[in-house]
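hiii so um. not sure if this is the right channel but i have a protein structure encoded as tokens and i wanna go backwards to a sequence. like what aa goes where. can anyone help
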């Protein structure tokens, strides 16, 4: 179990077309990481100019992003409101105006400027309707002359003034609201869908046009959830009464026929078996049409990592009560490889590489071979660490949501307190119960030689790990809402000594956005684990608990929090408790600041008895948000350090800390 709490090396994977190129950043002392940060710092304060990796360019401005404009007509645009608008109204109007948003990109001559201005009349009018104002007026003057009096023959000087005058008029409210052929929103299939009333389509509410459009979308979705795939809005009757400043709305929905799923066909396959694709979709011809089934199928195909794109083309009409669906796919290239080099003043040089075949036999079977050598040119280890492994995954076993994974790995790993050499083989069956719930059960056999404070021991361990997890996070690399919780139970026995024990861990993390845009997020994490049934000395070091490091209690060394063994050396324990809290504040579109506090302790006893040596670390981090996820740099200090703990520590990685 220790491997679950070891600080993992940060791995940045950059995907270019159909090859994966990887850069690794290992744990390093401050001067090594600071050198990297100094190089990256300009990215946080200026637009990225791109960089080259293995002969390829990344984050480069798109070709054509800066286009030469013939006879550019510069101008200065200003919106003037009749009265003092509130912030929401002002932002909506300014966002609708191309003249305002793109004034730093001059149009081509008078014709381009006038075209942009005339388009603004329609866009701003739509924005007024969107804010519930149906009696407003809009005027645009260019160089002091009304837009209606200007033509392409007119000429302007540089920085010509453009004045947009907006008189919003009175705010309207919904009056009478009628919906014909309304779906039943109280059914299990539709109870997740917001009703028109919940969206604001109710008498007396602000009469915003976007509320009407959103309500129509929900009405159609409600009928689709009830098995009517061709539901549509048959009529929309809107009457504005300027005397009462009310908007009467009548919406007529045509549900279309009740339908079952028809034939499921597959198009576009090259290497993939089309029969497997149809079967793996999980779509069952003859079953009542359900759009959620199609979304589940889309999610399954995404997890296969075989397809570049997947489109579900529904037939134009329901025929004899059935709706055929054609699955149109575009495949990715099957082979992927990656390589990386990392350097640390403590750990030395680490080189790693992997090769993956994503579609070995035509049914998305995945073979991944990976290896690494670490500790080269190290000041700490005389013998390099290594890791060589292979994993074979077969999807769609028994059900489309079940996988079987076979793995074998051999590795040597040396830390300050433990040297482990292990050969391990195992198999696991995993099942996805829903979009958020997964589980797995496996069996593994491993042969290890472990050297720690208790001496040199050889183990032959047979284990049966079982896991369950629920994950509702909106984004795995940068969650702003939702939670993740899981439990692992692992009975194991050492066949060499006859030791029998059972280990277990439970973890949970939650995320809550304070503001509507997710710019300020409170995040928390807890973890608990324990091993029962054996004395501490009889439990292999690989099954004991350690804490400390970037993925645990920041501010302390990697795996330096544990139970003191002979000569004061940390040997790990039988129980662990950890907790973390972060306040993730995004101060600009790309930069975030994250103050945090971590705490953890390890006990020699099972069931958390004897806990009491709590270690606490605190610090602040910076996040640079990219398309790959946030780049993380955290500085932490131990609040109650031991004699061998550092004064401070720096951690760098991709993605949030948890």
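sure thing!! here u go:
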């Amino acid at each position: 179990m220790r491997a679950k709490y070891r600080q993992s090396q940060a791995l940045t994977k950059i995907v270019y077309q159909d090859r994966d190129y990887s850069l690794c950043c290992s744990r390093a002392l401050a001067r090594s990481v600071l050198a990297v940060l100094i190089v990256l710092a300009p990215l946080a304060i200026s637009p990225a100019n791109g960089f080259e990796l293995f002969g390829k360019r990344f984050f480069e401005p798109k070709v054509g992003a800066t286009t030469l404009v013939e006879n550019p007509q510069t101008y200065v645009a200003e919106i003037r409101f009749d009265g003092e608008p509130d912030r929401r109204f002002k932002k909506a109007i300014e966002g609708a105006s191309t003249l305002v948003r793109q004034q730093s990109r001059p149009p081509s001559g008078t014709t381009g400027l006038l075209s942009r201005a005339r388009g603004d009349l329609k866009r701003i009018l739509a924005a007024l309707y969107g804010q519930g104002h149906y009696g407003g007026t809009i005027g645009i003057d260019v160089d002091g002359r009304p837009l209606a009096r200007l033509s392409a023959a007119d000429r302007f000087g540089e920085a010509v003034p453009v004045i947009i005058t907006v008189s919003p008029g009175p705010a309207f409210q919904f009056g009478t609201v009628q919906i014909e052929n309304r779906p039943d929103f109280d059914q299990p299939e539709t109870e997740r869908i917001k009703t028109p009333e919940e969206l604001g389509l109710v008498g007396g509410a602000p009469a915003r046009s976007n509320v009407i459009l959103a309500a129509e979308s929900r009405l159609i979705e409600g009928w689709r959830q009830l098995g009517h795939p061709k539901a549509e809005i048959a009529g929309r009757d809107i009457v504005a009464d300027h005397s009462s400043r009310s908007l009467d709305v009548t919406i007529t929905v045509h549900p279309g026929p009740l339908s079952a799923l028809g034939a499921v066909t597959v198009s576009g396959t090259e290497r993939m078996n089309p029969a497997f694709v149809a079967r793996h979709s999980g779509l069952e011809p003859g079953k009542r049409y359900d759009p959620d089934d199609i979304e589940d199928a889309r999610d399954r195909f995404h997890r296969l990592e075989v397809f570049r794109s997947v489109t579900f083309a529904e037939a134009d009409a329901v025929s004899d009560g059935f709706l055929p669906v054609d699955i149109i796919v575009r495949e990715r290239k099957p082979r992927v490889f990656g390589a990386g080099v990392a350097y640390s003043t403590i750990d030395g040089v680490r080189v790693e590489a992997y090769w993956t075949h994503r579609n070995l036999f035509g049914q998305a079977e995945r073979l991944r071979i990976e290896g690494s050598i670490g500790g080269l040119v190290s000041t700490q280890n005389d013998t390099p660490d290594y890791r060589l492994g292979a994993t074979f995954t077969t999807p769609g076993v028994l059900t489309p949501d079940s996988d079987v994974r076979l793995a074998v790995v051999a590795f040597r790993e040396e830390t300050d307190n433990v040297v482990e050499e292990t050969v391990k083989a195992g198999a696991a069956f995993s099942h996805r119960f829903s979009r958020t719930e997964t589980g797995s059960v496996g069996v593994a056999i491993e042969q290890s030689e472990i050297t720690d404070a208790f001496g040199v021991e050889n183990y032959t361990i047979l284990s049966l790990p079982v896991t369950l997890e629920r994950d509702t996070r909106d984004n795995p690399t940068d969650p702003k809402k939702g939670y993740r919780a899981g439990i692992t139970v692992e009975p194991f026995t050492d066949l060499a000594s006859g030791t029998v024990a059972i280990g277990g861990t439970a973890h949970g993390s939650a995320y809550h956005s304070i503001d509507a845009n997710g710019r300020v997020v409170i995040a928390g994490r807890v973890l608990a684990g324990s091993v029962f049934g054996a004395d501490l000395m009889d439990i292999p070091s690989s099954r004991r608990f350690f804490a400390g490091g970037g993925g645990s209690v920041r501010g302390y060394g990697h795996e330096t929090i544990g139970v003191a063994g002979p000569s004061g050396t940390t040997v790990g324990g039988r129980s662990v408790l950890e907790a973390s809290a972060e306040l993730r504040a995004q101060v600009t579109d790309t930069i975030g600041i994250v103050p945090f506090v971590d705490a953890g302790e390890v006990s020699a006893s099972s069931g958390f008895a004897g806990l009491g040596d709590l270690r606490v670390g605190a610090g602040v981090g910076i996040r640079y948000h990219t398309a790959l996820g946030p780049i993380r740099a955290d500085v932490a200090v131990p609040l109650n350090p031991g004699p061998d703990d550092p004064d401070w520590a720096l951690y760098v990685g991709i993605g949030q800390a948890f």
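oh and The chain has a mean pLDDT of 86.
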